[in-house]
Structures are given as C-alpha cells and as structure tokens.
TrEMBL record:
Protein name: Adenosine 5'-phosphosulfate reductase
Sequence positions that bind [4Fe-4S] cluster: C123, C124, C206, C209
Entries under Gene3D superfamilies matching the protein: HUPs (3.40.50.620)
Family per similarity comment: Belongs to the PAPS reductase family. CysH subfamily.
Source organism of the structure: Gracilibacillus salinarum
Major subcellular location class: cytoplasm
Chain ranges of the Phosphoadenosine phosphosulphate reductase domain: 41-211
Amino acid sequence: MLTYANYSDSPLNHEEPSASDPTKGAQGILNWAYQTYGDSLVYACSFGAESMVMIDLIANVKPDAKLVFLDTGLHFQETYDLIDEVKEKYPKLDIVMKEPSLTVDEQREQYGSALWSRDPNQCCYIRKIKPLEEVLSGATAWISGLRRAQSPSRANTDFINKDDRFESVKVCPLIHWTWDDVWNYIKDHQLPYNSLHDENYPSIGCIPCTSKVLDNEDERAGRWANFNKTECGLHVAPQSAK
Ligand code: SF4
C-alpha cells in the first residue's frame, strides 16, 4: 500500500491525463484509491459543485462509499436540501453528518456571540477541523475535491498528497478540472446541485462566512470576504491553524 511516507514517489502524480479521458485522470485515481485504501477511505464532502462530480465518479467505483459532511450547524437550508436530493439519487452512499462537540448555542456561551466575526480561525477549528480530525483518526486516507485552478494556494496540489494537517494521505482526483469542466459534467449528467450557485455563490460554506461574488471576482472571493482568510484550515499545515 502507498503510505504517508512514500506518497511522492507515486508515478500517478507524474502522469499527465490522457486527452481521451473525459475525467482528466479523476476516475482512474478514484479506482486506484478505493483499491488501495478500501473501506478506510473517506470523502470529506462539502456538497459544492465539485462534490456533485466527485460523488458521481465515486458511485461508479464504490456505490456504498463513506462521505463525511462537516455539519457546522450554520449551513444554508439549500445545502441541506441538496443533501436530501443526493441521498435519493445515490441511496447506497454512507453519508455521515459530522457535528462539532459544541452546538452553536454552547459555542456562544463559551466564546461569546458570533465567534466567526471575531476569530474565524478559532470557529473553523471548533466546527470543522476538530471534527474532521476525529473522523480521520480511523482513516488512512481521505478524498478532497481541490482543483489547481481554484486559487493560488491550491495550484501545486497533486493527485496524492502528504497531509501534514491530519497525518494522512489526501487524494485529490479533480486537480486538472476547470470550473467549466465541473459545470459541463454536472449539466451533461443532469446532476443535482445547490440552487445558490445560480445566485452568484460559486463557493458555499457556512452562512455567516459566505457571500455572493461579482462577475469578475475569484470564485472563492465570497468566502470570509472581510477577513484575510481564504481557507477554513482543512488544507493547510497545522501551524497555520489554531
Ligand atoms: Fe465558523 Fe465561518 Fe468557519 Fe463556519 S466557515 S466554522 S461559521 S468561521
């Protein structure tokens, strides 16, 4: 098995996707990942546009795959509605709604109101990072929908990545996909998606930290728009997060 220590030697990371492969290598990486890691492989699913593609590709390989949604308790109703649609379309999937140890009310009692507006890193740590740490404590590898074109901080993502944050292996099948690729796939395969995407929300997270973007803005510009923050901390090394 490919391990945390020798991931970078994998020839998979150096293969250019074949021009005849409409998934740009994604389906092959998923096949490999489920053969390699089996039931211990977890997909951390945000139910964003990339997730719709990934779920469809995963269902081709492992219809009963385990998906984990970090249910912060602060998501849009449209996101929960989409999850219900996905459950109907892919009934065998094992969708785990992972909640933080503190409810939103308990967090307010301990840290004061609207922690996200004063210290979003602390809030993300409580509501996203810690819960994912708990999920991944029993997993050897996890799947993420990162794409290189999403932002400069994601430009060097490989198919298979050493994950210092969670001491794991992070498999990123969609690295070669563009935003247009994602939407062409969704439309061609008539997949469900979050209706907020039609209202200028390209990237959707928690309600307090998600806003609409202007037509000329980066697709992640609407996340933590008033903070010098572009990532929740799931994809950065531990010293960058509390
Ligand atoms: Fe808190 Fe915002 Fe992070 Fe959600 S995205 S966990 S509300 S800081």
